[in-house]
């Protein structure tokens, strides 16, 4: 069965060019970049090359602003811990209610450590208010952490402006940019963003590699203590194949950004328009301020897990914010923060497209979904 | 998270039996709510002369296992007297599906509750606010779960941990603020448990010789357990019986199945019930 993979905010296929770039470092060039011999030294050069690729893709001022990590979650944890330790006298953290668990779980943990955490609400379209951020700011805030775009709805947050507000009050600013990399350009030149997390497997590199941008001049405290790798900022022997892969994937993501913003967006729009033409549906998230490939649609009185099982049988991969799929028995924290009514929240479906998706795949989903919705509504106890 | 549903669950989800509402239903049971994420409406037709369930239909809003539990339940109750139907436990509903993942056991509980409600409705017993008051105060506010319901499910399923209770009732699965209270309820049960099992032990274990015991175990496995596993393309082999320690090996679909733990605890309970309450069941890994 042909798999129609429309779950690219969860993870992506590794680009064959990325595989090609990393393969030699799995097979031939296995040296340790910390070794004195040239065999290891060559590997160190490959890491520095990847660092330049990532820095230039992000528009960073200097390659040394990039620290390689194992994943987006490690980048987020490193960034937040580092920021709090370098603003020791300040005891507040401001973030949003709709962050990824990589930030939210840590934030809740920090509350238990005695930090005062403020979770900014979002409106019905999933947007955060900068006015609210401004109101919440005071001289006790150590860090503002706001995602660049939400993974469930695709809604893009005004992080450059939020960073400026944080700086006006002497706080640091971190953004989880795992979802925007290669899809939406970010401007680091204004200096408003101190720390920025990215992840390899969301941009067609393998799992197990991430990076953290640390603005030059921003004080940094390592999270993993160990050897002198990454100039002492992250102990542990480098994941060389992963780093090389991330460098290549970052470069490719820049090259493909125009396609994301034109062809992929058009595919998403066509899918969305057609699904929203069904009765009792709603779009979750701001129509305009969104990632080009993401759409989050709710089908009233239909349960998301049942929906995913039916789609799965046809080889269609998507995800849902329903309670049964969240692992927590409650529907998605993002949809609840937006005030999506239960009749709709349990029946949400997220499609996230990328550059490898085709018109034919979208056609198949448009054809497959309406009878599934109809069938589940027939079984459902709720009818109106 | 992808669930490891049995083929029976999938079959009853993709092609459910008895979907709908009976036009001239004698009893209607509706449980769950949209806020909780699952709800089930069961209508039954009763043959008044012999108090037998003639027919039933269901409508379910919920995940795959909720729909499958509803579908199989309609088959299980057909032709049963009301008294027989009321004896169906949520474990039997789950077992009929070849087992449910632990996190999904609440779907089988919902099925049993809908059946109780439908029969109560037929008998003119008031299901609703009064009954809820009887069940005591609400412990879990996120899902509206009462102390009475928690106690009932703990007793019927011999639950031991808060996680079990969440899997079976959802209580504690929302904000988590009631977990302390659930622990207190559990402690009361574990305090009461040793006496209960001791009381039961004596009258329930007839004296058997070793050979008789082995023959009885073999008979239960062959006649009552294996046919159910085989329906789901699984099976088991009896490896050894050493005193009260029974060793089996799961084969086919049963081996490596995520619901295997559930199946084996069901088998163990069965052996304990019929043969000896001190029986222990060991599952030997395939190939070992």
Describe the structure.
The complex is a heterodimer of chains A (384) and B (288). Chain A is of the alpha/beta class. Chain A has helices spanning 16-27, 38-58, 72-86, 101-112, 130-136, 159-168, 240-255, 257-276, 304-313, 323-326, 333-337, 342-345, 359-379, and strands at residues 4-5, 66-69, 92-96, 116-120, 141-145, 172-176, 195-199, 210-214, 281-283, 294-299, 316-317, 348-352. In chain A, strands 2-8-7-6-5-3-4 form a seven-stranded mixed sheet, sandwiched between helices. A three-stranded antiparallel sheet of chain A has the order 9-10-12. Chain A has a two-stranded parallel ribbon with strand order 1-11. In chain A, helix 1 (16-27) runs antiparallel to helix 7, helix 8 (257-276) packs parallel to helix 13 (359-379) and helix 9 crosses helix 13. Chain A is globular and about 70 Å long. The mean pLDDT of chain A is 96. Chain B is built from eleven helices and eight strands. Chain B has a three-stranded antiparallel sheet with strand order 1-2-3. A three-stranded mixed sheet of chain B has the order 6-7-8, covered by helices on one side. In chain B, helix 1 (7-14) packs across helix 2 and helix 2 (64-77) crosses helix 5 (105-122). The longest helix of chain B has 26 residues, at 179-204. Residues 128-133 and 196-205 of chain B have low confidence and may be disordered. Classes of the chains: A alpha/beta (384), B alpha+beta (288).
